[in-house]
Amino acid sequence: MDPQLARNTRFTSIYRADQPWLELRLRDGLRNREDAQDIASETFTQLLQAPALLQLQEPRAMLLTIARRITWRLWRRRELEQAWLDTLRLLPEPTAPSAESRYQTLQALQTLDAVLDGLSGKARMAFLYSQLDGMTHADIAARIKVSPTMVRKYIAQALRRCCEAFEA
């Protein structure tokens, strides 16, 4: 059998058997039908791209793993949006940025969050304290309870990720 045909057949089989199950499971957890549908769709899109689709023994376990990752990203994006909106509410009216400026800033924050995804929590915090708050390495080290040398390493990791992302 043609390998592409075999992949398509396997995917179709999993989709037919498990799509209603996954969407129902997501709806129960999220309590939101639209989010459940969106996450289920994205989950199957990512599953279709999985290199080991034909060797997959436990499709439901894989579907849940992918869906959890997508759900976490959705929640993270919403947290960022909410934090940004909360910050905006604190600004006096005349200094509040325009709708376009707010959108661009939110997009930049989401991009930065995606670039830093995968770094340890301390590495992310060290970078953000350095770049956004202007803290010194010594102050950051005291705040996150590591050495200043480790702070430099964390910031270097994050900067490498940023450079790689923007060169791509």
UniProtKB/TrEMBL annotation:
Gene Ontology molecular function terms on file: DNA binding; sigma factor activity
Residue ranges of every copy of the RNA polymerase sigma factor 70 region 4 type domain listed in the record: 110-162
The keyword Transmembrane belongs to this UniProt entry's keyword annotation: no
Keywords: DNA-directed RNA polymerase, Sigma factor, Transcription, Transcription regulation
Superkingdom, taxonomy of origin: Bacteria
Pfam families according to UniProt: Sigma70_r4_2
Keyword Transcription (UniProt): yes
Name of this protein: DNA-directed RNA polymerase specialized sigma subunit, sigma24-like
Organism: Orrella dioscoreae
